[in-house]
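Lab notebook, bench 4. Still working through the backlog of constructs that have no structural model yet. Next entry is a single chain of 176 residues. Request: give me the structure tokens for it.
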Amino acid sequence: MSFAEDTRSLLASFRTTQGLLQRLLTGLQARRAAWVSARPSLLQPSAELEQLTQDIAREESGREELLARVRMALPRPLGGEPAELHLNVTRIAAAMPATEGRALRDAADAATRLAKAVRTEVTLGQRLVRFAQDTQPGLTNPATNPARKAGIPGYDRRARALRGADTAGALIDGRM
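Model written out:
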């Protein structure tokens, strides 16, 4: 493949990644918004989000192959090998025609912004899960009483909360 074909493929890869990241971000935000209901089934891994992350990883590995070919097409550093060449979008865009280079930079910038937003959403989701585990252990751990459904707080005949020995972090204890 020529340098122009490789750069067009790189641009397409960034645009594909951008679309995948947007779908992943939307899915993560929807899961976070669904936390209001706090059902244990919402804590299960999402097959759709898992598929999106695998698609992003595949796109990333394809982009690595493209970058290796682009690295070979660019001028070598003085006295060095092509593998030693520091490669980024700015350097690739400089070797392309101006409009195509600008499009490549814009696509890479958009993918970078979305990746940062996804990273932020993942961090927030991890903190929400940790918070739920600390405050309501029944939401993430199966119930010890088989008569109760998993994660649903209950009370005995004397209106005392049904929980194990660990009552730290409980938001509601059932006492008056």
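Notes after review: Strands lie at 154-155, 161-162. The chain has a mean pLDDT of 78. Flag for follow-up if needed.
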